[in-house]
Structures are given as C-alpha cells and as structure tokens.
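Forwarding the complex inputs:
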Amino acid sequence: MTEKKNRIIRLTRPPVVLASAGLVGKKEGEGPLGDCFDEIVPDATFGKESWEQAESEMLRRTIELSLTKAQRLPATTDVIFAGDLQNQCTASSFAAQTFSLPFCGLFGACSTMALALCMAAIGLDSGAFATAVAATSSHFCTAERQFRHPLEYGGQRTPSAQWTVTGAGAAVLGRANAQPGGVQITAVQLGTICDLGVTDPANMGAAMAPAAKETIAAFLRFSRTAPDDYDLILTGDLGAVGSELLYALLKKEDGIDLSPVHNDCGLMIFDRALQDVHAGGSGCGCSASVLCAHILPRMQRGELRRVLFVATGALLSATSTLQKQSIPGIAHAVLFSLDN
Amino acid sequence: MTEKKNRIIRLTRPPVVLASAGLVGKKEGEGPLGDCFDEIVPDATFGKESWEQAESEMLRRTIELSLTKAQRLPATTDVIFAGDLQNQCTASSFAAQTFSLPFCGLFGACSTMALALCMAAIGLDSGAFATAVAATSSHFCTAERQFRHPLEYGGQRTPSAQWTVTGAGAAVLGRANAQPGGVQITAVQLGTICDLGVTDPANMGAAMAPAAKETIAAFLRFSRTAPDDYDLILTGDLGAVGSELLYALLKKEDGIDLSPVHNDCGLMIFDRALQDVHAGGSGCGCSASVLCAHILPRMQRGELRRVLFVATGALLSATSTLQKQSIPGIAHAVLFSLDN
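Prediction (whole assembly, two chains):
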C-alpha cells in the first residue's frame, strides 16, 4: 500500500463562522441535546408528499435559517456546498435550487459536513468567495428505504447498527475579519480512504473508525500537537462500537489516549439507555446538527476554544453491499479556533 | 425567483494542466474521435466481476495514466477530486482508494468534470494544493441498470434519449508556472441550478439546456466577451436536442448566436448517422474523455488557444423520476487559455 498522504492545509486568512443552524426531528429533539437545536420539527414529512422531499425541505429550512441568523440574504451569498445520502444527492440539489445560488454538490456520506466546511474554507481563503454556506442533511425514513428495508417491513436491527438522524446543519462562513472575536477555521485536512475489509453495513462504526484514526493521528503528528491541546476532538458518528475501536487503534498504533478529550456526535445526540438507537446516531445530519446547533454556539459563548471536528463517512452503496464489497471509510478534519 | 447569482472566479495564479488522459470503451473508440483516446478498451468488464467494479477500474486506470503522463507519482500529488453517476459515487471512491490520496468526492452528474476542475483550480490558486487530479467516469452498463432498465430487458429508446458513454477522463493540474507555455485555467464559474420543469428522463438535453444557457450568458456578460472571443465554447453533453435548445434560448433571451463557436461533447464522440446513439452521447465520462483526450491536447499543440468548457449535469435520481419531480440542471464553466 502506498504511504498515506494526509496533509494539513493551514488557512492563511482563516474564514470565520458567521452563523450556524441545526434542525432535527422529534426523536432527536427528545434526546440530551433537545434544548440546543434551532428547531425541532415533530412532523417527519415536513408537509411534503415523500420522505425525499421532506428531507430536502428540512435542508432548505436549515440553510435559510442559517442565512437569517448570519443576517445574509441569498443575494449577498456566493455559494452553497452541500451533499447528502440520497442517491445522486437529490436532497441537496432540490434544496439548493430554491436559493438560486452557485452550487457545489459534494459526496462524502456522513463526512459531508466536514468536507463542505473544508471546501468552503479553502475557497474563502483563496478569495474565490466572500460568503459561503456549508450544509448537509439526513432523514431516517429516506435512509431506511434506500439503504435498508421499507419502514413497513419493521426489520430487526443488530446491536452494532446506528440510527440515522433526521436532521440538518448549515454554517455560513465569511472571510477572515468579517467577524472579529468569532470562531475561525484555522486549518483543514482532507482524508484518505481507509478500508480494513469490514463488509457489514450494520456496523458502520467499525468501517469508519480506521479512517478517523488515520486522520486524527496524521493531524496531531503534522501539527505537533497532543490531544490535550484541544478542548474537544469531535468525531462524526462512530457511535459506541466505532468510538471504542478508534480509542483502541490510536492507543495501539500511535500510543495516543484520545478518550479524555473525545466525544462523538452519534453518542451525544441520543440517550442510548432511554432511546432505541442501539450503537448511536448516524447520517450526515447527525454531526452537522450537533456541530451547528451545539458545538459552534458553545464556542461562540467561549465555553470551548479549540475544537477539532472530524466527520467520518462510509462510502458504500446498497449495490456495493449486495456485491459483497467492503466499506471504504473516510474522515475529513476541520480545526475551529476561537479568535482572541 | 431570486435573481441568479452567477459570478466569474478569476484565478490570480492560474493553475496549469500538467497532463490529461481519456480512456473509452469499444463503441466510443469506433466513433469520430477514436484516434484521440489514450486507450480504447474493448472488454467492457475491464476484467472485473461487476459493471460497477469495471467502471471503477476504468477510472483508476485513467487517473494512473494521467499521473504517468504528468510524470507525477501519487506520493507527489495532493488530492483527487472525483465523482460519478453511480449511487453514492462508488466508482470514484473505490478508484480513489487505490491511490491513498486525500479525496474530495463530488456530485454534479454529467457536470462533474467541470466541477472537479473548478474546485481543483480554486484549491491550487489558494495554495492549498500543489498538484491536484480532477477526474470522472461513466459506464453505459452501470447507468442503464441504475437509471433505466436491466440490459437484458432490451428496452426501446426514444429519439431524444442519449447514449451513456463508457469512458473516463482525468487531468492533473499544477500551480501557476509549474509548466510555462502550457494550458492554464484562468477563470471558473460555478453554476446555479435551473429547472424549467422538464420531467422526461429520456430527454436530458432539454433538461440541461437552460442551465448551459444561464452559465454561458452570465460568463459572457460578466467577462464582457462575445462568442467570437473564443476558439471554442464546448458544452458537456447536451446532444442534438439540447444543443438546438441552447442556441434558441441564447438567441431569444440574450441575442447571442452561439453556433459558430459551439460544439458539444455528446455530438462529437459518436457519429449519429452511423452509430445507434439517438440524440448523442452523455454521462460524466463523455465530456471528461473528450476534453482530456481531444480538446486539451489540441490546445497543447496550439490549435486552440481559448476554450470555454461548460459541462452540464442533470441532477435527477431514479427515485426523483418515479416521484414525478422535474429535472434540475446545472452547468459549471472552466476557461482554458494557452499561456504565451
């Protein structure tokens, strides 16, 4: 195997987070972070005729909300970076369409929020954009019928399975100095694909943990930092199984103990003891809604000053699973720092 | 409808094309551009067990070939931008995985080559990358079974239908001055989504023509240029139906006659009189292979000096079609100029 070529991209003119918004469904609203979300929508149809259109409407509302909070009109915004889990990323396309803005469609599965932030930050740093939106969504009902079973089938879930979050997150980023004293993105790192041969689509935490390990270890190595240099190292949605594997891999291969500073959006969004979610939450909207509605506001309040956000994605499809292919994982990293 | 906000992104340090490669299948090799392609592979399985893996292998070989031609090892390359038409872009993920390089997955349907070039160019301009690969693929057999019918069904095709190209293209880009006298990317423009309500998935040219019109008209307007300032304005794969609509829309709404400088990759790759392709070629690999194996080499030989490449995408899925949604179109533009 070729040597992995992870590399930190330092942003010379660090973009700032102008505002962010996270919107979730009923079950997510009943979880431990219920009070944080900008909106909890009890109707999973979002007033639409299909789950797919419901997800698109949820994403549209979240983007709109983030722009309102940032006091930006679509007309003063340059680009939307978005992607989702639906085949051909239709949730994002139909949502982005309503804003009539230049649109860059991304596919990173559950790593999409980090990927969107990476690409937005690079474009802002280069001067290509002055204001950029990074957004993503997932919906339990679209994911179930596309990747697993029709909801009506009522299939049993294995203990390692994660529950796809109905939720969306959007962040509006501006150029350096657009908001002094705010939260900056000071560095990003695009991940390489890791595949240790996991083939069980009901154990995505295990499939994604090696990629998270790879990205975090490389980021710490190249930045010459240690876990305790961060207030929080936040993974996307490894859930219970993946988080334990991440700790074990980092300990064994790099001698790093991540547990004191680590948390996982898939573990934070649900109460696994009270809510029937098995290994935790998953889906693009999981890390996006937790980051945008909980973590970034905590940074803005000064409760966290340095957060490494590492969203993980399992790059499988229903077809690749049926064809018995293993599940490639990827993890992209975004370093948020509170500007003094 | 909000006013569309297309905007040209001028690259202050224009990235250069270090090399490009285009690889196609048997039918494409029998077309008018047969002599141009780097490789014509008669075996559509590419030695693999499924069409999906075949497409992935084709993309992998094309990326590898482009790096060889650019005299770059994966170890001296910073990132791969790629996407494709397979659900969850698995052709790209499985191909990118073999290079162990940072990977940015994109979804732009048949506009993906232009989108990948846009994002690579912005990242090179910003200094985030020193060498970047932009690549995409499509395969007739994966597209047919995913979007239309099983091949064995032998369904009739309507006259407006296009034939998905089995092909892939990859371009290796370097920073400004990495290759003086070569082909530069001097400007890019991300497209906005246009949807005039076309719902027929067998008429993608019509669905994408409004987006191509929008992007081309905006590019000419904002750059204060006219069609005859270009040696070629090259659309992705509008085919016969879409190209006629593009001319009509530009003439009627903007008073622009595009026909003297326009060509379309979907019309160039096949001989419609001799090959059974109805309205022409389509698929991400159509514009990618034509650009990378025919147009960019022509520029390098000095036969073309200024080419506006506008790849178009139809952002539909089989699900959105079944749900009777219209087909959103998008077109991204890349301006190639020969450095003096």
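DSSP finds ten helices and 14 strands in chain B.
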